[in-house]
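A further point concerns the way the authors explain their paired sequence and structure data. The central task, working out the structure tokens from the amino acid sequence alone, is never made concrete. I therefore recommend that a typical entry be quoted early in the introduction. An entry of this sort, consisting of the sequence and the corresponding backbone structure tokens, reads as follows:
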Amino acid sequence: MTNQRLFASIITIGDELLIGQTIDTNSAWMAQELNKIGVWVKRRVAVGDTREDIWQALDEESRESKIILITGGLGPTADDITKPLLCDYFGGKMIVNQEVLDHVTNIFLKLNRPIIERNMKQAQVPDVCTVLMNKRGTAPGMLFTKEGCLFISMPGVPHEMKGLMTDEVLPLLKQNYKMPFILHRTLLTAGAGESFLAERIKDWEEALPAHIKLAYLPNYGMVKLRLTSHGADGAALEHELDTLFLALQEQVKDIMITNEDLPLEKALGDLLVKRGKSMATAESCSGGYIAHLVTSIAGSSIYFKGTVVAYSYDAKETILGVNHQTLETKGAVSEETITEMFNGLMNVTTADYGIATSGIMGPGGGTEDKPVGTVWVAVGSREKMVAKRLYFRHDRLKNIELTATNAMMMLFQFIKAEPV
């Protein structure tokens, strides 16, 4: 048991991670959950399906951290080498675990599928490990100890890993270690760049106690500010951090979107719910991406009426009522067209507020007066509309993401400025 800061390392295994075929979402989720219980992730390492590299990573991370969490390489195929390697690393031999074998057999019986020898091998584990039952799959988790370090191996399938973390790993860590509190307070700002924001709150930041850290997290025209503290007295830390966080909010109140660690689409949804209002989108260049972000939030059906993805001239005319002459003379990417798109959206939906987008995402399609990255966005209500021309200088995907973020930010600020 310890009151000191507890460090963990996360090792993710798989060639698919290194070549970018699979995006590693496991480590981010694991780090968040560990942080909640007071474990600080010191390093995150990705290695391929190579015995020497995995062995070296185990050696190196056990010198840095007391807890080493490993995901990947536990499947039934030849490229899944983690289990036999761990058996050798900890000096054990492979045995059949009857509880795991019964579990695997029951899974295939319930699925009414034949079980083959390769599946049954999932029940083989090193005799030097403690088995952690994987209720969501066939590959068990495994716990090893060596020279005061805990090594925990889990499947790389996110759904299975999360089940093991929730049911087995996190309770085990809380039981075996007395961990300090790690507390965060996060707010989101828009309308001021990172450097200008830092200059604005310079005096306040310099007066922070040494154990309170302020982080700047810029992203797509917004900046998150995160205060972090850690220590043994949770109540005292909460009080101190809350006091400082209130002072920080006062420093940036005119540009603050939310005083919670939320994505912009959630903050926008919360504002709409608070006001008892609804929204809809008319999307050309963003292709429905704004609607995707908005509807990714649970409960969005309360405030989201729907979207019109009017990509072609024909769709803009027939669905949104954009004038053919406007498109021919001004083009799809113009203040005139975006205004008519917005008005059409308000006509074909019952939404209180709307967003309309039209732009050139690239890589082709730009002209001298309308280069790639030129975007028109309109936001507003049935009584008032604001249109704005934006310029982005990135690849197609990032231009789409920036369009969506800026459009939602514009609508958020528009609604916030409305009288309640």
About this structure: The CA atoms of residues 363 and 395 lie 7 Å apart. The chain has a mean pLDDT of 94. The first helix runs from residue 15 to 18. The radius of gyration is 27 Å.
